[in-house]
Design goal:
The complex is a heterodimer. Chain A contains 11 helices and 14 strands. By secondary structure, chain A is an alpha/beta fold. In chain A, strands 3-2-1-12-13-14 form a 6-stranded mixed sheet. A 6-stranded mixed sheet of chain A has the order 4-5-6-9-11-10. The two termini of chain A are about 25 Å apart. A 3-stranded antiparallel sheet of chain B has the order 1-2-3, with helices on one face. A two-stranded antiparallel ribbon of chain B has the order 4-5. In chain B, strand 2 and strand 3 form a beta hairpin. The chains are: A alpha/beta, B alpha+beta.
Chain lengths: ~375, ~260
């Protein structure tokens, strides 16, 4: 763009600098006047700075509602946060994505009270290199709350998960938390497309890293892991709330972009006997939610970049987020949190940076959209 | 976006008068470059031998010199008629087997059944059925422009597809884009989604002006991709435009849409 056209952002920052410079030199009386005016303006707009206070309020309201509606027989409600899809390059190459995940870590650390744990949703690295994963681990170690790690395809296909597993352990595991049985899956295995094509590990990684190529295979949980899941769940009564974390959506959204898990139907069948099942997935970088049979699905936001909605296959319950502003690095990106209700189902808050947060409740999904509708977007995806 | 006076391409008219050496032509040193990176072909007329002006036929080969005409000077009407006569005569001499047919001059022979005699020269009486012209399936009106065969169409399609494919490669490669932070177009726009080329030109609020698709491509290259903007005539920008437009086949144009 030619230099003579100043963008809105540049003008905004210039104005801001001018005001701030004046502020530094103002006397006590002017300062008091200014702060009163600012507070008035903030109140009039319904904004109580800092923004994150808003989220906490909403989350608390949801927690309290959970207590009220289901009484004492449930488990104590709790909250967990997530950060996902940071896609880190080495710091020397790309500062943009580093800034974004650091911002998310700050967000989560600012939550008061702190969440029980933080899910990292996978795709910590962009091209799976040890340096990228190490930097990611270092940044996540700044989190105050404990972290649950999940693996994504960008972490895996350079060395087939060797480094990631060395750093974070097995990619498939389960744990119990305040009455909920939680399972973390590795849902991005792919059938060998590289040997026949004589690809190097780097070429394999680069291929998987792209969305719109027909070369790679589709994601799958795989037979072995499905067996593991069956055995793991066999120990759990069907009345226990189940929480599944997977990197790819455990349903079939859009095959061409691998917004898809090839054996999703088989995994859903394993989850069918359970009364309350929630699947939380990453990979799609957008506000995305669905209900299939007994399962509530929530897709989470990326810190790195938003993805457009696929041209077909979007779950009808999903309310699209506004098309992202390309002029704002953080627009359409973010992090978020989940509130487990007393009955073990979860509500979520999409903490979209530079936008109002959006709450999506389990009741919206259970009622198939008749209650608690999230606000509609102004600009749909193309 | 930037004014690039030095790389102005001169459009060829039916007969374009080109003063020897006065016009600037693109010469990017095409040798060894892939097809998409080559500049459009230009036709350089030979220098004037008699201090006149060399005029070239639209075939890009046949030329004649208008003696005594200085560069920049207008021809008289009779001079112009003489020039076009000379050029056509020369072309016909070189191509004795081919026929240059003016579209207007030849009415379909099948109008016999149609309305009153004394029909106009247009030959467009509507009653003549399409079956009547079946002898010349590709050239019902007898013009050269429409006289192409299936093979021609296949070649053209292949050429177009190759151009789009070059755009596809650039779209998916931070290196070819000239990016410095590993970001390529497809990372935010798989299958060129959310590029909506059909909505341009439109007012781009962030730029506070009306923008074309290429302006947004350049903006993306400069900002999220952290590369250098491309000249509107840069073969890479042209290939990117080709790829993006090709992904929106069949979508109605909707300029100004947000």
């Amino acid at each position: 763009m030619a230099a003579r056209h100043t963008s809105v952002e540049t003008k905004y920052y210039a104005d801001r600098d001018r005001v701030l410079k004046k502020l530094r030199n103002c006397d006590r009386r002017t300062f008091l006047k200014l702060s009163a005016a600012t507070m008035g303006a903030a109140l009039a707009k319904g904004l109580m700075p800092p923004h994150t206070f808003q989220l906490v309020d909403v989350a608390r309201a949801a927690v309290e509602k959970g207590w009220d509606s289901t009484g004492a027989q449930g488990s104590p409600p709790f909250r967990f946060a997530y950060i996902s899809d940071a896609h880190l390059y080495e710091r020397t190459l790309n500062q943009r994505f580093v800034r974004a995940i650091v911002k998310a870590v700050d967000d989560v650390n600012a939550l008061d009270p702190q969440p029980d744990f933080v899910l990292y949703g996978g795709d910590l690295a962009q091209l799976g290199s040890p340096a990228q994963l190490e930097m990611g681990r270092q940044i996540l170690s700044g989190l105050k709350a404990p972290v649950k790690m999940m693996v994504g395809e960008h972490d895996w296909f350079l060395d087939m998960g060797e480094k990631w597993q060395e750093m974070f352990g097995a990619p498939t595991y389960s744990f119990d938390w305040k009455g909920i049985h939680a399972v973390v899956l590795m849902s991005v295995y792919e059938k060998d497309f590289w040997t026949a094509r004589k690809m190097t590990p780097e070429q394999r990684m680069q291929t998987v890293a792209g969305l719109d190529n027909a070369v790679q295979s589709r994601f799958e949980v795989g037979e072995q892991q499905r067996e593991w899941l069956k055995n793991d769940l066999a120990k759990v009564p069907t009345t226990t709330p189940i929480l599944i974390f997977s990197h790819s959506p455990l349903y079939k959204y859009y095959r061409n972009w691998n917004f898809w898990t090839e054996d999703a139907d088989e995994v859903q069948a394993i989850l069918k006997p359970y009364d309350k099942v929630t699947v939380i997935h990453a990979h799609t970088h957008q506000m995305l939610f669905n209900r299939i049979g007994n399962i509530n699905f929530y897709g989470v936001l990326s810190t790195a970049w938003p993805w457009p909605y696929a041209p077909e296959g979007l779950p009808p319950l999903t309310v699209q987020m506004n098309r992202a502003d390309p002029f704002d690095q953080f627009d359409g990106c973010g992090d978020g949190q989940f509130t487990a209700r007393a009955d073990g189902l979860v509500d979520t808050i999409y903490n979209l940076w530079d936008r109002n947060p959006v709450t999506v409740k389990a009741d919206y999904l259970i009622s198939h959209g008749s209650v608690d509708q999230p606000p509609a977007p102004q600009f749909a995806s193309y | 976006m930037r004014p690039r006076a030095k790389s102005k391409v001169v459009a060829a008219a039916l007969i374009s008068a080109v003063a020897g050496g006065a016009a600037v032509y693109l010469n990017l040193g095409n040798r060894g470059l892939p097809a998409y990176a080559q500049a459009l072909p230009t036709h350089q007329p030979p220098p004037a031998n008699h201090a006149g002006v060399v005029v070239q036929l639209c075939d890009g080969v046949t030329t004649t010199e208008v003696k005594g005409l200085k560069p920049g000077e207008q021809m008289t009407h009779s001079q112009a008629l003489e020039v076009s006569r000379e050029l056509m005569a020369e072309w016909q001499r070189k191509h004795p087997d081919r026929h240059w047919v003016m579209a207007q001059s030849k009415t379909p022979a099948t109008t016999a059944t149609a309305a009153p005699s004394g029909a106009g020269p247009s030959g467009s009486q509507g009653t003549a059925g399409p079956g009547a012209g079946a002898v010349q399936p590709r050239s019902q009106q007898g013009d050269t422009y429409a006289s192409f065969h299936d093979r021609d169409y296949m070649v053209w399609q292949a050429e177009t597809d190759a151009f789009v494919e070059q755009g596809n490669k650039i779209f998916h490669s931070a290196t070819l884009l000239g990016g410095t932070i590993g970001v390529s177009c497809d990372m935010c726009h798989p299958d060129a989604s959310n590029t909506h080329p059909e909505t341009y030109p439109k007012y781009q609020a962030q730029l506070q002006r009306v923008a074309l698709l290429r302006d947004m491509i350049d903006w993306c290259i400069e900002n999220p991709v952290k590369g250098k903007t491309l000249d509107p005539n840069d073969p890479k920008l042209r290939a990117l435009e080709a790829y993006i437009l090709a992904q929106r086949k069949g979508v109605p144009l909707a300029y100004g849409k947000h």
